[in-house]
Design the sequence.
């Protein structure tokens, strides 16, 4: 009787996910890699009259007019502005679509300070940090990934705030 060598899985690698650490003004964000559609060089967005200062405007991407936000401003972490060396991440909207001018778009854009860094996230390397301070706006948790402190953004809440800001600016 022949036996096959079947690899034994401990389950640890099966639970790992690929993530990205994104540098923003005032900190880092940790996102699942699957949320990023594309990384673009920064270009000045088209202004949105009456929008809050964290909504920098709209950018054109593949036929869409995407809202561009500065997470540092949105969360109150830093007064973030785009410029030389800044990048724009096009993110897939978790709710299926983000509201733009009364219609839904499956994407929105986020200002960053450089390229995202690909990381592996596992239970062994990720710890929630509870310092008993209130979380910044749009943040669902503060975490440590190995030695890197990061914020886990609440993308659903951010999408809702983008929709409200665009509706009020219209």
Sequence:
């Amino acid at each position: 009787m022949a036996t096959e060598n079947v690899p034994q899985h401990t389950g640890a690698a099966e639970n790992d996910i690929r993530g990205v650490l994104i540098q923003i003004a005032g900190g880092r964000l940790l996102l699942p890699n699957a949320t990023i559609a594309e990384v673009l060089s920064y270009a000045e967005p088209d202004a949105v009259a009456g929008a809050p200062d964290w909504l920098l405007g709209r950018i054109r991407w593949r036929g869409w007019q995407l809202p561009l936000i500065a997470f540092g401003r949105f969360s109150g972490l830093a007064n973030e502005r785009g410029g030389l060396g800044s990048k724009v991440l096009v993110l897939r909207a978790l709710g299926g679509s983000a509201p733009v001018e009364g219609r839904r778009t499956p994407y929105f854009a986020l200002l960053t300070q450089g390229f995202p860094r690909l990381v592996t996230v596992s239970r062994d390397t990720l710890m929630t940090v509870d310092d008993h301070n209130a979380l910044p706006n749009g943040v669902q948790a503060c975490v440590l990934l190995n030695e890197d402190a990061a914020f886990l953004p609440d993308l659903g809440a951010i999408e809702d705030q983008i929709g409200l800001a665009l509706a009020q600016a219209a």
